Amino acid sequence: MDNQGQKSRSSFSGKVGFVLAAAGSAVGLGNIWRFPYLAARYGGGTFLLVYIILAVTFGFALMITEIAIGRKTRLSAIGAYGALDKRWSFLGKLASAAPMIIFPYYCVIGGWVTKYLVVFATGNSAAAAGDTYFTDFIARPLEPLGWFFLFIAATAIIVLFGVEKGIEKSSKFLMPILAVLSVVIAIYTCCLPGALEGIKYYFVPDFSDFSPMVILAALGQLFYSLSLAMGIMITYGSYMKKEVDLEKSVHQIEIFDVGIALVAGLMIVPAVFVFSGGKGDAINAGAGLMFITLPKVFDNMPLSNLVGACFFLLVLFAALTSSISLMETVVSILQDKLKWNRKVTCIVVAVCALLIGVPSSLGHGLWSGFQPLGMSILDFFDFISNSVLMPIIALLTCIFVAFFIGMDQITDEVKVSSNFAGEKLYRLITKYLAPVCIFAILVSSILNSLKIIVI
Ligand code: TRP
Prior knowledge:
This protein is mostly helical and 455 residues long. The chain has 21 helices and no strands. α4 (45-73) packs across α12 and α17 crosses α18 (342-362). Tryptophan is lined by residues 25-26, 28-31, 99, 102, 224-225, 227, 230, 232, 322, 325-326.
């Protein structure tokens, strides 16, 4: 990111600029597609409670750490860890692996969103609401691949020509519209007859649903949704001005991100209880949940095609801003390391992502017989990055800060811009709670998945 990075190092104007840019990277498919199906699968209210507790503790601490490291070193992840302690430069490399795994399958789902936009825009709402419409679609060999190519091409062209500024500007007014539309749809869903049971499932924790897997899933989702544990927030921090209140910004980004996820869940989870078989179906629904239940909700609404098309258009924008930022990250890491020119790097990254993404797309049809760890190929990539790699990066980051560079480095950086009201909490989490808990969760979940493999 050298030249380009240097030029724009100070590009976030004022307080709002930073929060909006970071929230733009955070809000994406993670909130609207991933959060609701995980909440449905892992016990509704139980998952929600665990998620919120983790967000205000671990999420808060890790985001403070990453942004502060970035602002202090003025480097992106790959150089930042090494600049603070040479022995730890491997952590920057490890963190860079996460966006490389996520980017290809993110585009597969971006392709599904594009398809649904076209379906609604061409007036096919009734067909999309059919029970097997989605599963039939993703099982086809070629069609999902076509949409995936289209989405990745769009992302690559935007990154290649460096026109993301325009997209980002428009997303700044489109995201609030998405938030408002989601609230309207959520209210509509909740007023449908039979929704009450789903609302209860979504809000009231039932501790018989609780297991270490719930915590791991919530933790992985938290990192994914806030774009943490992959060095992104370090890069954003490196562009942040010293006078912007770091702690307050973190609170605002979290509120924004968790708020959108919460509403997305409310739009989708109760609908499973209205249109399908309730709790059992919610648990089994899996990654297609948004594409299966939402069309049913829309088809029930007046002007269904218009509402559906608007919704998927806005989701497409949210997905594009995130995929652009993911690709930009991968491109800048490779450019820094290999000193290739930008055009070549963009093309190489796009082609590699295409090749890596193809199995994720075919894994629901042609290649569905191949099930690593008993999951579809897309779920497998998702699991490896979010439930294995990112918790390990988060764990190592805490150890790095608490036991190697010293927490004062971070707290002093936060205090450059304001008092640090949450300092005690921050220290407690980073030094004791996070390392112990993340380690325990990781071990228990790995044992759990080994058990599944052995059986
Ligand atoms: N947070 C994004 C979302 O919710 C996904 C994401 C994860 C991301 N890591 C990222 C986006 C890095 C941009 C950059 O959809």
